[in-house]
Amino acid sequence: MDLLDAPVTALARRLRLGELTSADLLEAHIARIEAVNPLVNGLVAHRYEAARAEARAADARLQGAGPEDTLPPLLGIPCTMKEFLCTKDMPHTGGLLWMKENVAKVDATVTARVKAAGAIIMGVTNIPEGGLWMETYNSIYGRTNNPWNLRRTSGGSSGGEGALVSSGASPFGIGSDVGGSIRIPAAFCGTIGHKPSGGLIPNTGHFPAESLGATGSYLCTGPLTRTVDDAWLLLQVLAGPDGQDPSCQSLPLGDPAAVDMSEVVVFPMESTGRVWVHKDVRQQVQKAAEALAAAGATIQQPDLPLMKHAMDIWASMLSDVTEESYCDILGKDGSMNPWWELLRLWTGFGRHTFAALIIAAVDRLVSLLPSRKKKFVKRGEELKACLEEMLGENGVLIFPPYSRTAPHHWAAWLTPFDPAVTAIFNVMESPVTQVPTGFSPSGLPYGVQVVGRRGMDHLTIAAAKVIETSLGGWVRSNPAGR
């Protein structure tokens, strides 16, 4: 199998057996980045020389190890990190122009854990300004393109990771997700993406630092990978409290291999009830459910009428626990005025992207409607109780990851509330595995979300693996034939 197609599990095995060197593996992926990055603009800063030194050290360790020696699970495997996650001596700007020169002085917890597991970080990847939009672009690094069609979005906010993993330029990437920011890029680019249970993985070192605290259970850090097995491997590396993120808890990880599909109940649901999901995307939900049924699972119809309030619930519950407003995050000196900055943008003196300003304006409006927020927080709590009761320990909800395949650049503004189909599961604190299900007639990836009750990450992984095996899984993209 080509190095650019092999899963992490296979690459790690070949390294351990001496069939491959970390140095050669790294150079193959650096060459791939240099071939595709001018087209997709996924990697925004590299550390190739440091990575080469680390690869040589990994090879020495591998060569000196005996058959019985225990080695770190990712020893010698190259990867990439989302720019929002501190990687020491690399840019850490959050896509904000006024932070252009900011460099991380320490590693985020997940970065440190990836390094401790032996992985070699090649660089950091592109994000939207401030992070709360599904188009990856900002005034520092520019726009990331979808590797399947450069005129379309790669999604956001982990859009750089989605583009690189999709095109075989990185064996795996680490992203983050507060409203779909792992799952939407994974769906648009055709990779696996896992949003873990709320509080399973610490967010220490994530932009902005003030996101720790109550929002930590809604903001989730997780992997984008080539295979479901790789996502599970990464989840085991990343999970567990670090003593710094107050929202991170010790949740026991089950075993996907121990899941008996004959005991699994599948609830296929094609929309929130308000988001208009295209017919071909709805069909993927049924295909995935049928694949699980063929493996022995039972199909039942869900009953979640409160899901129609998904976007209102997400916005209200997130706003209810956020200590810092979006205007505070974007502003250099105190809270930024989105209306004034929109005027500056239209007069040619803008300091922020249009997406960031619109989101900040909406956030400001939500804060002015406390009674409405209180109502939807209550409905959110009711929906969470209903969802967890319905799913139990053996249930998975199959749900679309977006209303359609990857839109053209800017086209997402025509349907700005469609990310409700992913965002709702952040405030539900549900584990969700996005898994590819094939391709549209125009060659764009399809996918589905596999949703479980909080703490049941192994169950969504197990179900996603069945879907992956049945429907084909990840296929490497070749931007512009490269």
List the defining traits of the structure above.
globular; eleven-stranded mixed beta sheet; 15 helices; single chain; alpha/beta; 482 residues; Amidase signature (AS) enzymes; 15 strands
Task: Specify the helix fraction band.
Answer: 25-40%
Write down the secondary-structure element order.
HHEHEHEEEEEHEHEEHEHEHHHHHEHEEH
What percent of residues are in strands? 5-15%
- At the first level of CATH, what is the class of the largest domain? Alpha Beta
Structural classification: alpha/beta
Query: Would you identify the regions where 5 or more consecutive residues have pLDDT less than 50?
Result: none
Enumerate how many helices there are, as a single number: 15
CATH topology of the largest domain: Amidase signature (AS) enzymes
Strand order of the largest sheet: 1-3-2-8-10-9-14-15-13-11-12
Please tally the β strands and state the result.
15
In the CATH hierarchy, the architecture of the largest domain is Alpha-Beta Complex
Largest sheet: 11 strands, mixed
> How large, in whole angstroms, is the Cα Rg?
21 Å
Number of domains: 2
The CATH fourth-level homologous superfamily of the largest domain: Amidase signature (AS) domain
Shape: globular
Task: Summarize model confidence as the mean pLDDT.
Answer: 94
Distance between the termini: 18 Å
